Amino acid sequence: MSQSRPLSELQSNAVRELVARSPLLVELGERFAAAGHALHLVGGSVRDALLGRLGDDLDLTTEARPDVVLALVDGWADATWEVGIAFGTVGVQKHGHRLEITTYRAEAYDRSSRKPSVVFGEQLADDLVRRDFAMNALALQLPDWKSPGAFVDLYGGMEDLAAGVIRTPGRPEDSFDDDPLRMLRAARFASQLGFAVAPDVVAAMTDRAARIEIVSAERVRGELEKLLLGAFPRAGLSLLVDTGLAAHVLPELPALRLEIDEHHQHKDVYEHTLQVLERAIALEPDGPDLILRMAALLHDIGKPATRRHEPGGGVSFHHHEVKGAHLARKRLRALTFGKDVVEAVFLLTELHLRFHGYGQPGTSPWTDSAVRRYVHDAGDQLDRLHRLTRSDCTTRNRRRATVLSSAYDDLERRIAVLAEQEELRAIRPDLDGAAIMGILGVPPGRVVGDAYKHLLALRMERGPLGPDAAAAELRTWWAARPAG
Prior knowledge:
The protein has helices at 7-34, 44-50, 66-73, 124-129, 157-163, 172-178, 181-193, 199-207, 217-228, 233-243, 246-249, 269-282, 290-298, 303-306, 320-334, 339-351, 368-378, 382-391, 398-421, 433-440, 446-462, 467-480, and strands at 39-42, 57-62, 79-81, 89-94, 97-103, 108-110, 115-117, 138-142, 151-153, 165-166, 196-197, 308-309, 315-316. By secondary structure, it is α+β, with helices and mostly antiparallel strands. Strand 3 and strand 4 form a beta hairpin.
């Protein structure tokens, strides 16, 4: 989690970040000043500059109306766009930077829909007070950003950044009544920055959790995705669960908090899930992986529906991976995730127990055919399945953990050996559809598909046969096929 830092460090960060962009910002600021208009870097751009993580997308604000802004950047910008102009925003492209210049806004919300009536403001203070959090209600005067007093901080946002705290500029109750999505944004920033959320903000989120229902699924998905890809997703997810927000946007997560009684003991599934997520993150080879993280988060969501109390005090969750895969697909579709994410998480959830029992005492060793099927069924998700399966071992028993890790090492070794011998990741029958039709003398149709499946099963069981042997097996199958 993020540690508190002195204000001097934040200011040094900002100077370093802004110096790299000062020619662009000063030049634009001078154009506005020459025309008698104010211009400020604002919001997340100032926050990120102070944190030393400013990107190439910059947010600016001015009292100039959009038509005036367009006139001021005409001939200076490499390109402009007007998608957000109804909300006072003019988009500008310059030297690889994307700038959004927005006229001061003083919004009034319809609290039944979270859609604001946009009213242009006349003062910077009008714009800053409407911001979601104090750390985002910061502004930096241009072009003289180095001058004393250039930083505008009306609500203690710099102190919040220094302390690592998320607060609202005004009463959090009013802020969340205006726009309930801000509650998810609080959790998202907790995940991205590792900041603590102020107690009064947490209380307001808890009291108003049900208001998140008026937010569109697309906007909820956007915040959940950013939260999950943050550096500290446990912090954001825990906040959602503890405040009751998760019950409305991802109810399968709090449902994992299964009651544990003195007679029927089992692992804390909710805590286990968060541990699996953190272990999976540690195995990511190339940065945040949404599909892997989502699969880690949802892999056990079938357990509540499949829990059974067994004689003797045990608890079982038979076929929870199958139930969970379907629940994950349903939830992710409802949240409007793309098909690539939905189906990959479905597959990983469904397969996460396939390895169970491999190499364990009392179990039959896997045949090469079983290894081929494991690889074939995982398809392009095999590498993620490796990471998810390894992450799913959260036992505190060191001996058991070592046994499981060694067993999976052995499985990966066997996969590598077979892959070197065969085209394991693209297992196909030795004959394609055209060859099947030629040998059997049949047109395209169901029989060709049946023949293909038969040859694929043989390929799985016995490995590569070669064209001649495959043709002989095909003729044998054809001859034994029932007439009609």
